[in-house]
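User: Can you predict the 3D structure for this chain?
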Amino acid sequence: MKLGEFIKKFSHNNLIRLHYKEKGGNRLVLEDWNDVSMDWEVNKAKGKFRHYVNNEVLGLASILLYGTKGQSYPEAINIVIEELENQPMIDEVEDDITNMCESVEKMKKLFKFLGWLEQQRINAMIHTGKGFY
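Assistant: Here is the predicted structure, written as structure tokens:
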């Protein structure tokens, strides 16, 4: 199973760390124990591990992190993946600021409409003594 599929099926909003299988154990894909990423970032082409979305998952590794330098994220799930000779590099997807700004403008319009609607309800109550919804 590919890493992207594995994450979609089995991991939901977890920190992950990737390893390669080696004779006698595993070695880190990146150089530092602090190199972790949120699982959902992989499938959204974001973060440090986006390049490995299509690597086969070989298993999980239970690793005790004791005496490592700095914050070593012991809660991260350690996933062992295949090592590819020519690992494809995937460009990171940036958030689309334009879409975010358009969404903010739509929300402002919605709140303005809801304010107008509430004012109409209040006016109806004053005028008739009853609301219209």
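The chain is about 35% helix and 20% strand. The first strand starts at residue 15 and ends at 22.
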